[in-house]
Amino acid sequence: MKKIFFCVAACFAMLCSDAQSYKKLHDRAILVDTHNDILTTAIDKHYAIDQDLRGKTHSDLARWKKGGVDAEIFSVWCDGLKKDPYAWANLEMDTLLAWVQRNPDKIRMVGTPEELVQAVKEKKLAAMFGVEGGHMIENDLNKLDALFRKGARYMTLTWNNSNDWASSALDETTRPDSLKHKGLTDFGKQVVKRMNELGMLVDLSHVGEQTFWDAIRTSTKPVIVSHSCAYTLCPFRRNLKDDQILAVGKNGGVIHLNFYSGFLDSNFFKHSDAFMERHKIERDSMLKINPEPYFSEEYLFGKYPEEVEAMRPPLSILLDHLDYIVKLIGTDHVGIGSDFDGVNSLPRELNDVADMPLITKEMVKRGYSKKDIRKILGGNFIRLFKENMK
Predict the structure, then answer these.
(1) Which of 82, 172, 176, 332 has the fewest CB atoms within 10 Å, i.e. is most exposed?
(2) Contact status, residue 373 vs residue 86, Cβ threshold 8 Å
(3) Mean pLDDT along residues 227-239
(4) Contact, 184 vs 165, CB < 8 A?
(5) Angle CA 219–251–249, to nearest 5
(6) Residue 125 forms beta bridges with which residues?
């Protein structure tokens, strides 16, 4: 009986030790999340990140701290239907700046890798902007410069909509006949070159394949893919094919993994399509109000939570994408780009930013070294940031 007791006690002690080990590693690492859409969500729903937003959003200041997130890149986004996208970009940026001014002990804006590290030392959330969609500069390099001065440290060349100088993944794959051009125009290449001069990271999430290749050949600095996954595991247009992954590795760039179920699980859209068909009448009425599909999906996903819960894939599938990319290009070229507050479905164990330590736990289980885990959580982004700011 004593032997059984000591065996159980030893096993319990080992489990506690493992739990403390991954938590300690997570807390000591610098965790950088390169994509969060809370700005759009907060403006639309009249929230603020210094409120307790549990049950309403994926993110708030208290949960970033609980999840061990040290640096957040806040997405500055609007769809291609906005009449004044540059003005909207400034409105979103001003919203975050107001939050920062109200909470100087918890969050600070940073513009350099050194400032990021200093904010971490001060135990403050390091905040930057990422402009999601090149249409927001309105074909004006002066506006690109202004957004950089205001704190934007990357720009996604397109969102789902193409712009006058770059074609998107959505348009290249589903409506190529609508395109005035494919890939980057001469002005598009000027945008990439100007971003290189500024030290603004060129983001290749959302872009079409031709735009991807034109941009990676034009850029003289390592690129960022702020929130995408592996196409081979989940063949959706927003994910990167093997030759693209290899090209990012050769370029010295970093691919930051998106947590959205649809970019992780190849079966998710089959389940989602069936869900939408079941609620077709409601969806059609929503589309008449706003033709952007995301808004009707968000509404319906919120209305039928039990059906939505059944569609969520396990957390392990996110780690499968990590393993796949690491096998192709190594641990120096992968990071975290959650897309929290910009998606309507996440892996079952990841309910919000407070659950970030579970990713570290899974990496430990899969045998990643402490050094590699620190790189993936934030070290790779900091290296990329430094190389772009040279």
Answers:
(1) 176
(2) no
(3) 98
(4) yes
(5) 145
(6) 107
